[in-house]
Amino acid sequence: xxxxxxxxxxxxxxxxxxxxxxxxxxxxxxxxxxxxxxxxxxxxxxxxxxxxxxxxxxxxxxxxxxxxxxxxxxxxxxxxxxxxxxxxxxxxxxxxxxxxxxxxxxxxxxxxxxxxxxxxxxxxxxxxxxxxxxxxxxxxxxxxxxxxxxxxxxxxxxxxxxxxxxxxxxxxxxxxxxxxxxxxxxxxxxxxxxxxx
Amino acid sequence: xxxxxxxxxxxxxxxxxxxxxxxxxxxxxxxxxxxxxxxxxxxxxxxxxxxxxxxxxxxxxxxxxxxxxxxxxxxxxxxxxxxxxxxxxxxxxxxxxxxxxxxxxxx
Lengths: 197, 107
What we know:
Chain A contains 8 helices and 2 strands. Chain A is mainly alpha-helical. Chain A has 3 domains: 2-68, no CATH class; 70-119; 126-186, no CATH class.
């Protein structure tokens, strides 16, 4: 069982490393002996065997890699990154600042785009709402309703500032005069009272 | 070992070597080199990782023992699963060789 073998290896990594190191050392010694028997001087045989073997640390690392779970190298990478950042705080600060500015800018731009372009209007069938800005006369609205089949309902609003004077302080508020189809068009209900029918 | 050696081939060579009897890392490398007339030189950087892959898949088991000239060594032994794997690899390899030969022999 591959997984079981891997777990067992993970629990006794020390023995694994020891065995492998020992095994590779013996391998070099055997190669050295062979060269010795063939008549190569002792010292020379030793170096020749070492050269032939290549880099034992690399071989050890490659062998050990076969056994590692993917998350082990992930944690190692994170640890390494943290150590490197700690070693050069200036670089770390600049990186963090760059990331912060980049993420901040992106978030800001996205919130604007989301609000203006992406989020649908809070009305019934927002994709079907069309705003026509004509001169503000009701006969125009009635004409459009009568003479075209392009629009299904046809609400109209005439918004304008008005004065509100019953309070101690007079206020200017925005008031919309609407026709009877207006609420139906947007599919909204009244907050108080009832809508035109 | 050349980097463009077909993947999995080294494992097959090791299993084939071990199917003749247990051996240690050095012995395996020597055997492959001698039988292949020095055409295949197995670097330790690929031999030991390959042995680890075989161990991991239970194709071989490893045990410390004593070599013919009274030296401590780690001996590898092929398992039943390893033999099954070997014959499977052989079949695949044969098919591959036939395929390559066909392509190369077509003018």
